[in-house]
Amino acid sequence: MATFDWKMIRKGTARVERCVVGYHGFNELVQAMLIVEDDDGQTYSHLMPSAHSLSKALSLQSEKRVSDRVNGGDFFIANGQIVDFRGVTKKKQFVHTDEAITTMLEEVGVRFSGENLNMVTQWGRKSLQPDEFPLLKAVTKKTGIREHLLDANVSFSSFRDATDLHLPALGEDGEFMTVVGQVWSPFKAHVEFTIGLVRKASKSGMIGTTEGLVQRFQIVNEWEHHLDIASQRFRDDVHKHLQKRFAIMQDTRASVELVNRAHDHIVKRTKSMSLRDPAYQRAKELMAALDCKFHLGAYYMPHVFQEARMKGALQSHLTLFDLWGCVLETDAHLPSVKGASTNTLQVFANELVMTAQKLHGVDRIIGHEPETAFDSLDDAFFGRLVS
Question: d(Cα 328, Cα 37) in Å, to the nearest integer?
Answer without folding.
Answer: 44
